[in-house]
């Protein structure tokens, strides 16, 4: 966070960063306040929005990460990119000074039943809870140097509850048709899916539903494919094989091949001998006529 500390008060403005970094905020009569950059910035920014100061950041971290831990069915699929197990991830995020990102923003929106408006230089997007019903809106800014700040009114208050009230006017809502973070999560989970297909689905469905649908799509497609019977080609008959072999020049056998054939013939003789011994003698006075078996045995 050296870049932030190196800025002068004039560059940052009286209460926050310069208007040049966030022209959208400036046009709405808002600014990104100075928020401590110690790895807890996301939770400090949310604490300022909820309580009017940064001091509750540990509580915010615990609540957000606790929500993720309690809902592995919703979040576990997105943790794999970090190369660690879900349990290891949640334990690490519970620790002080570990940077929080989009997953924690989503979890905070659910845990605190809030819409979270995230402002960037010239656009903003809103993370909305799916399971909870939002009863408030929290405003935070995301810097290009991976830092979150709480958003406040230029006219104040500059301490205590922010009471954010943006000036009326058009607000550019994310250049993308859907929030970029949702698109990136789905693309990482389903790398073979086409981007336009994902965007189309995200317009009407939650990203978790889209991922599940894309992962099961190949199975559904295969169910509708016509089933064709395998073609079995008839092989040559024994007579044809023997005739073909008779017309081929004899290949010179190696010592190993000769030994192998000798062992095979010895085994066949032994099997035939044992078979004859085990067959019961047929009585001349048998009530049923004897069945003439073919005297030719084919070994496969």
The helicity comes to 40-55%
Radius of gyration: 37 Å
CA distance, first residue to last residue: 77 Å
Highest CATH level, the class of one domain: Alpha Beta
CATH second-level architecture of one domain? Alpha-Beta Complex
Assign an overall shape. elongated
What features would you describe in this structure?
This protein has 300 residues and is of the alpha+beta class. Among the domains are: 159 residues, Cathepsin B, Chain A (Alpha-Beta Complex); 41 residues. Helix content is 44%, strand content 9%. It has 13 helices and five strands. The chain has a five-stranded mixed β-sheet with strand order 1-5-4-2-3. α5 packs antiparallel against α7, α5 packs across α8 and α9 crosses α11. The radius of gyration is 37 Å and the shape is elongated. The protein starts with a helix and ends in a 22-residue tail after the last helix.
Summed up:
It contains 13 helices and five strands. It has helices at residues 2-6, 9-12, 23-27, 41-51, 57-70, 72-75, 86-93, 102-111, 180-189, 195-202, 207-224, 238-247, 255-278; strands at 30-32, 115-119, 124-127, 137-143, 147-153. The model is unreliable at 1-14, 220-224, 283-287 and 289-300 (pLDDT under 50).
């Amino acid at each position: 966070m050296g870049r932030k500390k190196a800025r002068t008060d004039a560059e940052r403005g009286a209460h926050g960063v310069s208007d040049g970094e966030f022209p959208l905020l400036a046009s709405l009569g808002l600014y990104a306040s100075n928020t401590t950059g110690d790895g807890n910035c996301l939770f400090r920014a949310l604490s300022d929005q909820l309580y009017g100061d940064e001091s509750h950041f540990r509580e915010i971290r615990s609540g957000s990460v606790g929500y993720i831990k309690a809902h592995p069915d919703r979040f576990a699929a997105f943790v794999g990119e970090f190369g660690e197990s879900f349990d290891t991830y949640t334990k690490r995020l519970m620790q002080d000074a570990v940077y929080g990102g989009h997953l924690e923003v989503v979890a905070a929106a659910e845990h605190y039943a809030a819409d979270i408006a995230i402002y960037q230089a010239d656009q903003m997007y809103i993370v909305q809870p799916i399971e909870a019903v939002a009863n408030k809106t929290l405003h935070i800014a995301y810097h290009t140097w991976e830092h979150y700040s709480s958003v406040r009114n230029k006219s104040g208050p500059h301490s205590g509850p922010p009471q954010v009230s943006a000036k009326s006017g058009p607000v550019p809502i994310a250049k993308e048709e859907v929030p970029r973070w949702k698109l990136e999560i789905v693309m990482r989970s389903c790398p073979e899916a086409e981007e336009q297909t994902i965007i189309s689905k995200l317009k009407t469905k939650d990203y978790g539903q889209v991922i599940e649908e894309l992962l099961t799509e190949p199975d559904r497609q295969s169910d509708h494919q016509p089933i064709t019977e395998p073609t079995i080609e008839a092989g040559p008959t024994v007579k044809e094989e023997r005739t073909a072999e008779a017309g081929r020049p004899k290949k010179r056998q190696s010592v190993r091949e000769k030994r192998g054939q000798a062992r095979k013939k010895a085994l066949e003789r032994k099997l035939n001998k044992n078979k004859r011994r085990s067959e019961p003698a047929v009585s001349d006075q048998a009530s049923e006529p004897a069945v003439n078996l073919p005297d030719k045995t084919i070994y496969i």
